[in-house]
Amino acid sequence: MLKKSVSIAAKLYYRFKNGFNNALVYFLTSKPVKKFAAKYPKVYTFLLHRFLLNEFTQLPLTLLLLSFIANLLLLEEIVEAFMGNPLIVMTDQYFVKLMYSLRVEWIAGFFYYFTILGSFWGVVSIAIFSTVIFVITKHKTYILPVWIALLGTQFTVQMSKNYFHRIRPLNFSYYPETSFSFPSGHATVSVAFYGVLFYAIIRSRKLYASKFRWMIAALVFIGLLGFSRLYLCVHYVSDVMAGYSLGLLWMLLAISMREWVIHREKKKLNGYQLKNENRR
Questions:
Q1: Residue 75 · residue 246 · CB < 8 Å
Q2: How far apart are the C-alpha atoms of 107 and 230, rounded to whole Å?
Q3: Distance, CA of 180 to CA of 163 (rounded, Å)
């Protein structure tokens, strides 16, 4: 079943890629575009590079920046909705009561230990361990993104918690938490920090089938870590959703920085090789 799903996903990807390339070629060869290129060659070249797939600074970076802006706006919308819309508060209260009524002791116990993976010391321990692994395996370019995602999320989450001062659903919580509720630090870390780690694994895989499996694993893990906070009734739904949005911002920033460093190193290497060839 999984192999069949991977095969279908790969076929859809190649169809999309070929279709996108054909549509792009058709668009670029149209008369209006040719006239625009002749009149504004520099602007045309700049816009053209935004849609190419040859380098990270082209279409991939464009999509990352657009995603970053979109999620920043989404986070702002969530905060505004939470602050001014009573429907959000009512939905949060309803979901907390629902999770409390569905609580099963052994499931709650599992999530209690599972959620430690998103705690401060749990994440710091994994970050240190990951750093050592990256050094040993000579993948040092992942070290900075990992720590940017970790430290960035910790700073923004604590700032946000102290700014909004939202009280947790203490009457329904599985265990006591002393910090404020909004946004969820565990949800933020699950996307930002663990997202970067999964990105490192996915980038190291050569087969698309393996990449796809790790992508599914990443989505399941992130979903479970966020859901664990809801099941244990230590957060509201809006806390987790805001945490996911905030985490996605830091993940995109960390990944973009790593890809930019790789791109810069490749350009330096190519320039060095070109100089050596010219000297010969």
A1: yes
A2: 12
A3: 10
